[in-house]
Design brief:
Strand order of the largest sheet: 16-15-14-13-7-12-11-8-17
Shape: globular
Strand content: 15-25%
Number of helices: 14
Structural class: alpha/beta
Number of strands: 17
Radius of gyration: 24 Å
Bound molecules: 6-O-phosphono-beta-D-glucopyranose
Amino acid sequence: MIHPTLIVKQIMKQAEPHVLVIFGASGDLTKRKLIPALLELEKQKLLPTGFAVLGVSRTSFSDETFRQKMTEFLPDPNENELTKKFLKKLYYQSIATEESYDYPVLKDRLLTIAKENNIPENFIFYLSTPPKLYEIIPRNLATVGLNSAEDGFRRLIVEKPFGTDLNSAKTLNKNLLDYFEEEQIYRIDHYLGKESVQNLLVTRFSNGIFEPIWNHNFIHHVEITSAESLGVEGRGGYYDNSGALRDMVQNHLMQLVGMVAMEPPVVIEADAIRNEVLKVFQSLRPIREDDIAKQVIRGQYIESHIKGELVKGYRQEDGVDDASRTETFFAMKFFIDNWRWSGVPFYIRTGKKLPTRVTEVVIHFKKTPHRLFGDEMAPQADNQLVIRIQPDEGILLKFGMKVPGAGFNVQTVNMDFHYADLANVHLPSAYERLLLDCMQGDATLYSRGDAVEKAWAYVQPIINAWNNNPNIPIYGYPAGTWGPDVADQLVEDGGWRYPCKNLSNDGTYCEL
Ligand code: BG6
């Protein structure tokens, strides 16, 4: 176990006073993620002194009812003085969001709230609505001049999904850019807000020991897993039109690939970092439609028994077509054709109803050039650097050590660091971090329009092949297993790592 000596250095720009307008405020995301994240920022004293939230949606509530609804996911909302004070900063306005005639009402209310609370006309608009409104709301805001300002700022946060394919993403970008400038648009990918994802950059670019070996000379292959034990959890209607490729791969996993593979940015600033991520996406070797059946595996969970209990298959979930061919599991092998990564295979996999919830990046280093120890017949383990995104966030290095006693038998041992060892350091949630960044005008951890399009362009041939060729198989896998067996054949040399909840353990079915 490594016990870190930690110097926490906080470089913070102060967020300017503003009103945060949340469209889709009666939806789940607002009460589950956004309001708890804002309260946490308040506790950390990171919100500006002039701050208010205006929730907007169609349903009509009073401010008081809205405040009450927002307490559902807050700890002790009625006892805690700070929480009570925070709740008073929440307001609510019901409008017909898709109709421009209601926007003067919205504007009046917004200006009144700003004036009453002594807040200058700085506004952030958060789109947490059904995606079809992502084009309508910015246009309607523009009809009342809320898209730009001579003094103060106007920013627009757009939730995922950002398009459903390359064309729809391009259209959405174009429509947003008709009313807002690129610098005003914050496309959210909550994976980039995770502390452990940002730590990837620090691990790579602040450690002299890792950077020289982070390339094709030393790395054999890279494996990225994002597994979930949950299924579609009441979101069958949405998920059945999406599937793992659109829901997880095009956005979250591609962003992880960007962080693992990018070149060092010139400075730690939004455009410098985002330029490097874009270059990675530009270097992805296009997958030919003919190779899709070989390089990409899709699967769907089927009914099974977990610990004696019957677990539904995907097609039996509410809102899912009973002949659905939507993938709940996705695995792919691909290459990045550039100087650093020439010839290094990358593997990604994600799925629902897998044995455990875990996201991690595993760097597999090349083996020693000549084998001196151990049984010639036994497979030689490689050195692995495991960067654990969640849970049990941390880093693990696996290396060979002599088994004490006679001979030279080698055993793999672990050297690990867990974020949980950092006592008294608050690990901000992804939404805390991202909301605060937008308040401070920092878009580093948001996706830029060109990169989002590039990521769609990369996965588009897969979508096309699946649409055009019904013979490409979708493999069933029993709920609670690591996906279809054929996915194991994708990875040459050693197969996938089978992670457990705890970073230092691994095995086939740890959590079951
Ligand atoms: C969301 C997907 O973007 O990410 C969900 O829509 C998925 O289907 C979730 O469950 C995973 O996020 P996290 O932070 O729990 O890994």
